[in-house]
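Worked example (supplementary).
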Amino acid sequence: MMKPEQWLSEALAKTLNELYGNIGANPLVIQPTRKDVEGDFTLVCFGLTKLSGKSPAQTAEDIGVNFCNTNPEADSFNVANGFLNISLTFEFWITYLNQFSPQASEPDLNVPPVMIEYSSPNTNKPLHLGHVRNNLLGAAVANIVSASGKKVIKVNLVNDRGIHICKSMLAWQNSGKNETPESSGIKGDHLAGKYYVEFDKSLKIQAEPILNKVLSADFSDLDEKQSLKATAILEKYNTSTDDKKEELKGELKLISNSAAPLMKEAAEMLRRWEAGDEATIQLWKTMNGWVYQGFDVTYKRLGVSFDKIYYESETYLLGKELVENGVNSGVLYRKDDGSVWIDLTAEGLDHKLLLRSDGTSVYMTQDLGTALLRAEEYKAGNYVYVVGNEQDYHFKVLKLILQKLGYSWANGIFHLSYGMVDLPTGKMKSREGTVVDADDLIDEVIAEAKKKSEELGKTETSSAEELAALYERIGMAALKYFILKVDPKKRMVFNPEESIDINGNTGPFIQYSYARIQSVIRKSKGVVDNQYDVKQIENEPSHRTLIRTLEQYHETIQAAANGYNPSLVANYAYELAKQFNHFYHEFSILKEENKQLAAFRLELATKTGETLKCAMGLLGIEMPEKM
RNA sequence: GGUCCCGUAGCUCAGUUGGAUAGAGCAACAGCCUUCUAAGCUGUGGGUCUUUGGUUCGAAUCCAAACGGGAUCACCA
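After joint prediction of all chains, the assembly is encoded as:
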């Protein structure tokens, strides 16, 4: 059976052809009829007046008459303000319901796969709220794209090397006293984070006096290069406004930091790491191992997984060859000091550095190399990077460079740029200790789910294990739904209290609707027969509304996949659950005396339940059979 | 300063290629459990869609400018 909207579009085109001759490729504007107006679909007729030569209302009237006369599926029509509202027969809708299924078809292997990179953590500290949004988005987008019929490859690029890791390592070496996750009982990623914070503290103690000296033009702690830079900044600083001063002070702080002995030690450690020093590598492996153990726990709790994990320690040298080729082909240029650049001024951007004068690579070089590696390995059609919007510029440049270098697959690069997560009190700042830790947050939402469930007294019927699993489902549903219902590209405010709400537009509300449906289905066994005659069922608005909403499911998934936007799925599920609750309140299924009608309603409820489960499943939210 | 993103109810958010009287939830107030799970349902109040101009049958949506918020512009990643 064809999709109603598609069928209608073709049938209306036929009608228009009969009335006005060849209408050409003029796309018809068809939309679901708004709630307060009678009808299933609405044809907007303003654009058709040129064809008909009549007023919008008269045009709509003519089309309506002809359409209803020639199509038995059409029930009636009405015209309002130039909108033609068409009602299809209820029988048509029931027949549609009979064959409806929310199940996704198998991915089409002839279509190039879609690669989705997300998570991409640093291994020096535990995951926080920002990572939570990233991970949930990435996992949901992967599910949705897969459900839309494309094969998906989920990729994680772990940033496991660099100066930030060395900071943790150094602090542990200096003051760790051989503390391990086992000896301390601290989760591995949190332990590494603890020493990262410790490093920062010690560094601050060293760097502050240096900064103060620099501010009074005493550069005795700086080397030649740093002094030069500081002099220039200080000059500006003394003549700047307060706003600008803060900014320049930040730059001076960076210089002071790098002049501190501890920072030099960390840099030295990084050099040893790159040189392959055995003891350094060993320490690095050990601490990263702790972090991975910790991440695995958090990933599992979040319900995210990956098909392929890349480590930056294995990819950070890539890209140099690509850059050399670019120089040879003239797309890139080399300065006298040996550094390599690309000129993007024609595109309204700047010159961008791709290789340092000492020949080492920068962030961009690595990303270029990694992109090439993946393209060769997987030959995907699309490469989606789930990365925060503070890197908009980076990805714009990345795509542009690859395109300029002549890689056609670069056209498939898409930066899924999501907004930051703010707290009601303002921005999260690690230095001020206002970051929300991912593990704490998960514990909190589950504890809150438990508390609320106990308050409602819904705890008698199940075992302790079942209840624990249920609380986890409810808590995680609250958290995931709260984050995923917001358009990814928008900055959002995360209120910890609202995130664990269970009433209204929330995950638990949708779970509750589902649990009610399952309860009805369980109780229907032996009471309601599944067979009914389509012709025997009478039209009822809230039944019809539900079917019409079910009909939008696949379209919603497609739109969400095309726009990489899980919020469309979340909002759809909410709308569907709300409509079901309305229906549930208005009609009884099991107590309906007309058995035909009861059977029909049961099917309607069952299909609604399946659809809710599928939609929420795409968001990584599990549905409980009881709650 | 250049570039990019955002601005919808007290708060958090929907509003898919321009379509009819701009919608939900939370919060507030008022109802509904002898009836398939009240984590629910129904109702009331709440809006200059930041502002101004433009495009047209028609603008929250497109264009321009202003205002407000944010990001970014490293031989850091």
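Two points are worth noting when inspecting this output. The longest strand of chain A covers residues 74-80. Residues 162-275 of chain A form one domain.
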